[in-house]
Amino acid sequence: MQLDSTRVAIRERSLPEVFDLALHVTREFAGPWAGYSLLAIVPLATLNYFLVGWMAAGDYEADVPGLRYAWAMTILIFLEAPLASVFLVGYLGPAVFQEQKTFRQVVGDVLRYSPQLFLSQLLLRGILPVWLL
Prior knowledge:
Structural class: mainly alpha
């Protein structure tokens, strides 16, 4: 990693400058951004369909139609939001510092850190908040 040679100048920025920088980074890495995002989003969307897809059909009795589906999807999105960008972060982090990583290296990095990631997501965002209520 070359900290003295980055694509982005590391300095304090105002909020409009951060938004502008986000647009520039999105434009420069649009292709990999879409690919690495879909790598996590498609499996999570498939999992969500199998977990709560039957609720959207509306073939069940409930006091408020769709409330159970909305609650379940809210919880799933809360738990899965950090997981949906894990491959993108694995690519963009080194790419900003001009370190070119192959697809295999990015997936390997994500898989190497996946036990800690799933443990933190399961405990800190899943079980502990429910247990503390």
